[in-house]
Amino acid sequence: MVDKVFCKCAERLVEKLETYALSGEPVNMEARFSQMTLDVIGLSLFNYNFDSLTSDSPVIDAVYTALKEAEARSTDLLPYWQKGKIARLMFDVILVYFLQIDLLCKIVPRQIKAEKAVNTIRNTVEELITKCKAIVDAENEQIEGEEYVNEADPSILRFLLASREEVSSLQLRDDLLSMLVAGHETTGSVLTWTIYLLSKDPVALRKAQDEVDRVLQGRLPRYEDVKELKYLMRCINESMRLYPHPPVLIRRALVDDVLPGNYKVKTGQDIMISVYNIHRSPEVWDRADEFIPERFDLEGPIPNESNTDFRFIPFSGGPRKCVGDQFALLEAIVALAIVIQKVDIQLVADQKISMTTGATIHTTNGLYMNVSLRKVEQEADLALSPSG
């Protein structure tokens, strides 16, 4: 997965960045990271190449339209599009959308566009499921033992179909679409804010690049390299502390309960947990608003909810913790390592970076940076040239 998907997509991103480096044009890193993570999730889930970094297609447009609509619905004060209760978790919203479209959605332009987008995605995913099922059945493929790896198609869809579990195509489609929503925007936002924080701290950026150069020696990262990229991982951890995705968790009470502090909760009530406020609370963090990757011990375990006494919960915690946490961290560190290995980045001057909060924390107007080819890369090229 690391070389076939993560490295492949990150290399495409770097190729795109190199064109900006040569032209001198600023690049919106938020948009580029979003495209890269869409490509990653497409290959990982469906073995489907969105190729969004280099091409446009109706499917790509549909994905972004649906994602924007899902996020808009998570923050709409008047959810005219939905029947029933107002408060819904963002990832519930996109699934409810498949089933509940009332009359008003047929005449509101935004909703008409969103409905068409969802239908495009749904039809595409259904076609992929049908084709993959036919291939698995034809090859009489089935998982044996504890491990399963298909070199030609390492996608989650192939794994699920080969597992032969009884699951309907409708459920499989909706589960995959949930993964598409949850796994795309979050990692893109993590990379956006990490590169932003590093651009504001040249010492930290230099330290991260030195580590990447030392560990990788100019090659692409392998799975076993990740545990050696300790400082880079702490930069990502610290970025997720300052800009968690999602910034708010919502849980619904299944029974009446009383929380610590004598807060009474009724069945069906939604409880909002502000991850953002916990992560920036001076009561639990020293210099809470500062970017300090070293606050997490380099030789200690990767911080999570358990070893930080639930002060650090970017993936939530407990039985409903994000199941894709390790996937997201691996994707982020591989992508970031390749980017800072190949290019230098500098924030465009006089640019105001502000936050827009939804299911994740976005920049309001993008994150524009000037990129240039790393000098270490240029020196290596000269050393290898016939005249060098």
UniProtKB/TrEMBL annotation:
GO CC term, one of those recorded: chloroplast
Cofactor or coenzyme needed: heme
Molecular function via GO: heme binding; iron ion binding; monooxygenase activity; oxidoreductase activity, acting on paired donors, with incorporation or reduction of molecular oxygen
Gene Ontology annotations of biological process type: carotenoid biosynthetic process
InterPro entries given in the database record: Cyt_P450, Cyt_P450_CS, Cyt_P450_E_grp-I, Cyt_P450_sf, Cytochrome_P450_Monoox
Pfam families: p450
UniProt: heme binding residues: C322
Gene3D superfamilies xrefs: Cytochrome P450 (1.10.630.10)
Keywords per UniProt: Heme, Iron, Membrane, Metal-binding, Monooxygenase, Oxidoreductase, Transmembrane, Transmembrane helix
Statement: the UniProt record of this protein carries the keyword Disulfide bond: no
Family under the similarity heading: Belongs to the cytochrome P450 family.
Protein name (database record): Carotene epsilon-monooxygenase
Organism field: Triticum turgidum subsp. durum (Durum wheat)
